Amino acid sequence: MPYEKISELPDSVKDHLPTHAQEIYKSSFNNAWEEYKSSQDRRDKSSREEVAHKVAWTAVKKKYKKQGDNWVPQ
């Protein structure tokens, strides 16, 4: 289920990440959703959605880091 708007992202993303990080998350999730649609393209038995969320968090962590309770640019 790709996200059309950042307002559709899970609360764990919307409530904690800055807007730019949310945009990174949404874009990365949507790309991974398409890239890993076949279970043969996934390394383990994770669902398509689980893989897309993992990819999205990894993309965010390349540009942002958690500092205390906040996510800040690296």
Give structural notes:
By secondary structure, this protein is mainly α. It has a single domain, classed as Rna Polymerase Sigma Factor, Chain: A, CATH 1.10.1740.70. The chain contains three helices and two strands, in the order H-H-H-E-E. It has a two-stranded antiparallel ribbon. Strand 1 and strand 2 form a beta hairpin. The longest helix is centred in the middle third of the chain and has 17 residues. The mean pLDDT is 95.
In short:
The protein has 74 residues and is mostly helical. The chain has three helices and two strands.
N-to-C SSE string, H for helix and E for strand: HHHEE
Strand tally: 2
Find the structural class using helix and strand composition.
mainly alpha
What would CATH call the homologous superfamily? ChaB
What would CATH call the architecture?
Orthogonal Bundle
What is the CATH third-level topology name? Rna Polymerase Sigma Factor, Chain: A
Assembly of the depicted chains: single chain
User: Residue share in helices?
Assistant: 40-55%
Return the CATH class.
Mainly Alpha
What would you call the shape? globular
How confident overall, as mean pLDDT?
95
**Distance, first to last CA:** 29 Å
Overall tally of structural domains: 1
Q: Please report the number of helical segments.
A: 3
Strand order across the biggest sheet?
A: 1-2
Strand percentage: 5-15%
The gyration radius over C-alpha positions equals: 13 Å
